[in-house]
Amino acid sequence: MAIVSMSAMVAFLCTFREWRKYHFILCVLNCMHYYCAASKPTLYYQSTPLTKQLLEHCSLLVEKYHPTWFLFNGHLQTIFLALGSRFPVVTYSREYVHLADGGLVSLDWAIPPTKSTSYVEQHHDQPTVLLLHGTCGGSWENYIRKAADKLMEHGWRVVVMNARGCAKTPVLTPRLFNAADTDDIRQVVTHLRRKHAPTAPLLAVGFSLGSNLLVKFLGEERDKCALDAAVSVGNPFDAMEIYRHLHHSSLATHLVYYRAMTKRFLKLFFEESNVHEHFADHPTVDIDKMKKCDTMWDVDHAMTLKVFGYKSVVEYYRDCSSAPYLPHVRIPLLCLSAKDDPVCVSTAIPVEDCLANKHVILAVTERGGHLGFYTGDGILSYPDTWSAKVVAQYCDAMRDIVVSRTNCMSPSWSSTGHSDDNNPIERLPAKVHPVPQPRGPLSPVRFQHQNSFPSDLVDELELCDGVPLHRVFSFGAAVACAYFVKKVELVATSWRGRLRRA
């Protein structure tokens, strides 16, 4: 109803030629929304000297977040991001990194407008940030470009890791990116630390699937991590919880997000990369069956299990989840999530695990959608991304801390403050995760936590195919969201032109 009423109001006001008369009304409504919808992020953290220092420098985390007035729920925030709203143009210089198994990933170095491509090689002492994209993404993604542009404004050297097959990266082996394997990130971080940032601060920022892999990597590395700090944005945390939400939620959620995600993956597999050529003669993967997949569950059952040696999709999704690795993170980590995220639902956020680790700060906003976090303080101002500003603030604070600790020859993060063995936060029994144990056919750095799913749940997940009818609502609501957002964007652009001429 909110969508219908607001879109009707905008359409009604825009039909009048005397639009200046109604500009005041819209300004009043905008002010009401600006102050009523705004709220401070909910923070979960242990009070330590480090977290206090970080929050003093990150003012946006302790101030109110004002969502854009016409993007008043998670669906609109997410759709607006996907529609290709205006983002800065970023120039990249590409570097290829050959992996130990013969695979290939690409590193796109962001070049500031006033610099040349030699800028990358000439600034080994400059603080560097590694950006990790989401599923089937790359350096071209809107949220990646916005973060890169904001970080460059703050003096950071930015590099984007494009996963196997993504962003026109050639595929050399019969293997695409894996949502559970962190070997590629590990090799890239080692490469960056040795070649590009031997002494400079090196941070990483992950988005969606990239943030999940990043957190898992941090938990696996523990005290040996080569990164100085990290940021996780829109992390799914629990792959099984996300699957249950996307597959068994409303018809709109199932079609708009889950089916669209599957189509995007198949397009990458068959059209945008050459990975399908390596599977043409694969002994266990049926290419024809892959083309008929309707969901990511089907894709994982047809390909992932056979390529990576999992016994079931449930086992693979357990291995994908980064939540069990949060207790083992030993470097400063900021996690940003939104309660209204329609993809990575808030029920998957491991609040207790974040509270139990003195290195982690979890910030949860009421609005923001999936990677959107749009904000704006004017009715005609174009939406800006709040998360990019937070990332830049946090990275700046960590840069100053790392530099000061390096100058003072301070010990590692894990050897300062309270010992993890004497943690003042009591863990809830239901949330205790076992220490990950090595397993898997790929390498000794892959882990799987020992808790097994109940047999009845496994049977239910294996047999379910359709969306329960009693949880279906009109798909027209999602279509109306997309139309409404695009219409408001066009109206705002038209009004800005009229104001300039006036």
UniProtKB/TrEMBL annotation:
GO terms for molecular function: monoacylglycerol lipase activity; short-chain carboxylesterase activity. It holds the Pfam family Abhydrolase_1. SUPFAM superfamilies: alpha/beta-Hydrolases. InterPro entries: AB_hydrolase_1, AB_hydrolase_4_CS, AB_hydrolase_4_sf, AB_hydrolase_fold. Residues 127-376 form the AB hydrolase-1 domain. PROSITE patterns: UPF0017 (PS01133). It comes from the Eukaryota. Belongs to the AB hydrolase superfamily. AB hydrolase 4 family. This is AB hydrolase-1 domain-containing protein. It comes from Aphanomyces invadans.
